[in-house]
Specification:
single chain; alpha/beta; 6-stranded mixed β-sheet; 7 helices; 14 strands
């Protein structure tokens, strides 16, 4: 499985410009099975009511917000078919009068979603968005991915790879997932936390971790990136230079991962 991470400089509240930047990044990237974008890749982190107004009043984003989201998803499906790959990242969407920070995992034929569970109350996200309740695991070309968004990184219980839980629920034995994807708008001021916790999640869950952050600035924060792909032993397989809009690619070697899990089967000793 070849994965490419796209560390982008998101144009504030400008979906059209960010979608064009996505197409350009895809065209200049290595051929991969999966391309991963940051959190709210097409708008920036619209946590507050004021930031939502910026989006609605942007002249390039007039009209029904949910309709615009549907239009963007159709474009992502076209990209997925065009590049014969999956494309993943989160967006601000509205559904039945509620807003969600929704992670989309789009393949040439299907669309999978996960709504961010842990809303960032420090920035007011909990006041303007509705939290998701369920985990989402997507299997793509033989690899099982757990979908997570930004602040979820601080809550390891929610992302735990638990063999006993799987057995108790009478599901087939074996690892619940092989990789976690974290998409984020993680500020430079808290960068050390991002770096350390990405590796911790890989080590404790014996899985690959794909972490994709943005660079640049929004009205509140500066972002310096730190996007990386990490293996189950905590080794960085690929990374993007800080403060640079660029891509990086790595292979998720499932044979190597499964051999490591069999040799050192720590997941079987996890708490229920």
């Amino acid at each position: 499985m070849k994965v490419t991470i796209l560390q982008t400089d998101i144009k504030w509240a400008d979906p059209d410009a960010n979608e064009k930047a996505l197409e350009s990044a895809l065209l200049s990237s290595e051929k991969s099975d999966l391309y991963v974008l940051p959190e709210m890749w097409n708008t920036g982190f619209l946590a507050s009511e004021e930031s939502k107004d910026s989006l609605i009043h942007n002249s390039k984003f007039f009209g029904e917000r949910s309709g615009k989201a549907d239009y963007i998803i159709q474009n992502l499906k076209e990209f997925a078919r065009r590049f014969d790959a999956a494309i993943a990242g989160s967006m601000d969407v509205e559904e039945d009068g509620k807003r969600y920070n929704r992670f989309y995992f789009v393949t040439p034929t299907d669309v999978y979603t996960y709504d961010k569970r842990h809303l960032f109350s420090y920035a007011g996200e909990d006041k303007n968005f509705t939290a998701g309740k369920e985990r989402t695991i997507v299997e793509w070309r033989g690899v099982k991915f757990l979908l997570q968004v930004c602040y979820d990184l601080r809550f390891p219980c929610f992302s735990r790879n638990n063999l006993k839980l799987e057995t108790r629920n009478q599901k087939p034995q074996g690892s619940l997932y092989d990789a976690i994807i974290y998409v984020a708008n993680w500020p430079a001021s808290r960068r050390k936390v991002w770096d350390v916790l990405l590796q911790a999640r890989a080590l404790e869950n014996q899985c690959f971790v794909v972490g994709v952050n943005r660079v640049g600035d929004d009205p509140v924060c500066h972002y310096d990136g730190g996007s990386a792909i990490i293996d189950a032993k905590g080794k960085i397989l690929a990374s993007v230079p800080d403060n640079t809009a660029a891509t990086a690619t790595a292979i998720l070697d499932m044979e190597s991962l499964n051999a490591f899990r069999m040799k050192f089967p720590v997941l079987q000793d996890a708490d229920e």
